[in-house]
From TrEMBL:
Species: Paenibacillus pini JCM 16418
Keyword Transmembrane helix part of the UniProt annotation: no
Residues in Metallo-beta-lactamase domain copies: 13-191
GO MF, one annotated term: hydrolase activity
Name this polypeptide is given: Zn-dependent hydrolase
Keyword annotations of the record: Hydrolase
Protein function: Counteracts the endogenous Pycsar antiviral defense system. Phosphodiesterase that enables metal-dependent hydrolysis of host cyclic nucleotide Pycsar defense signals such as cCMP and cUMP.
Top-level taxonomic group: Bacteria
Keyword Hydrolase: yes
Catalysis: reaction(s): 3',5'-cyclic CMP + H2O = CMP + H(+); 3',5'-cyclic UMP + H2O = UMP + H(+)
Amino acid sequence: MGISFTVLSSGSTGNVTVVRNEDTTLMIDAGLSAKRIDELLKEREVSGEEIDGILVTHEHSDHIKGLGAMARKYNLPIYANEKTWGALDGSIGKIAPENRIIMASGEIRDFRSLRVESFGISHDAAEPVGYCFYDGNDKLSVATDLGYMSDKVKQVISDSDVMVLEANHDISMLRMGRYPWNIKRRILGDMGHLSNDAAGEVMSELLSGKTKRAYLAHLSRDHNMMDLAKMTVRAGMEDRGCFYKDHEFKLCDTYYDRPTPWDKVSES
């Protein structure tokens, strides 16, 4: 079966992704209400009872809004590093002790036949992480909410078949936007969010013959548009000599209000 995934929701209003293989189904973050997550799961023909656990990237509300409710409703284990657990305490309600599981940043853990690797990223949270998923030759990487991509992160997510990569904002739109300057400075900083331009630079370095698709994620509703993000990322790649054809590599959409179709990682 290999790895399949759907991005149920992506953006500043809430982030939820589901990754599965033949014997394991995991959720990355739970940044919407439990009711809304259940609705989106139903759209992709998944029930909460099928989820084997929730992996947490960091403690910001758009990633944990429904975390406690989902864990209690379906008796789900939550996996997060120790500093993130410290930041979560008091914000997600009571969690059964057996469901409070520490997964250290940089740890590799097997969930039956699905292997998961956690890696540290740069963001203004306690100890934020991204995740890579492995099953046989399949590799899926999820990297959002990072102010910049370090060489170490590039090394970890290189040779992915599919990436879910942040393209949060258009720099000009953000600078001219309605946010106060201190918020703009945070977003633009090394512990903020990856811009369209930065995503294009990253993709030009990471695109390999194995990489077939990149989903642009966590787009700002105020300071970005999907068509603009894809155009900027594509231009950035081509400016650096990285040319491709649509049948060989695709930039794909994510949405804040609806899930992406199930995508099988190994399919071209």
